[in-house]
Amino acid sequence: EVRQLATRTQEATLNIQPLLQRFRQTTEQTVQLTREGQALSREGTQAVTSVRESFSQVNEALDRISSMSVQISSAMEQQGQVAEDLNRQVMRIADASRHSAAKALDGRRISEE
């Protein structure tokens, strides 16, 4: 009876060894996959950080463009006002020239009489 128990124990031990080997392999694979997952997670985090920084730079560029557009618009408005002022002054000069020409013509007529 003791021999039978010893034999069965030996058989059970032989049967358990492959199971333990598979368990070890599975555990090692799990550890390896966990490490790979952590590495991928770090890479993903770095990619998200990089994208966030890129969006921040784009926002800053858009803010600068918006500010420049406001400045350009203001400058164009000022130039428009200057152009209107110049136009009014040219019209005054033209009126004064016509008036002077008319007076000169009147003076000539008077001197001819």
UniProtKB/TrEMBL annotation:
<dbReference type="GO" id="GO:0005886">
    <property type="term" value="C:plasma membrane"/>
</dbReference>
<feature type="domain" description="Methyl-accepting transducer">
    <location>
        <begin position="1"/>
        <end position="94"/>
    </location>
</feature>
<keyword id="KW-0488">Methylation</keyword>
<keyword id="KW-0807">Transducer</keyword>
<dbReference type="GO" id="GO:0006935">
    <property type="term" value="P:chemotaxis"/>
</dbReference>
<dbReference type="Pfam" id="PF00015">
    <property type="entry name" value="MCPsignal"/>
</dbReference>
<dbReference type="InterPro" id="IPR004089">
    <property type="entry name" value="MCPsignal_dom"/>
</dbReference>
<dbReference type="GO" id="GO:0007165">
    <property type="term" value="P:signal transduction"/>
</dbReference>
<keyword id="KW-0812">Transmembrane</keyword>
<keyword id="KW-0472">Membrane</keyword>
<keyword id="KW-1003">Cell membrane</keyword>
<protein>
    <submittedName>
        <fullName>Methyl-accepting chemotaxis sensory transducer</fullName>
    </submittedName>
</protein>
<keyword id="KW-1133">Transmembrane helix</keyword>
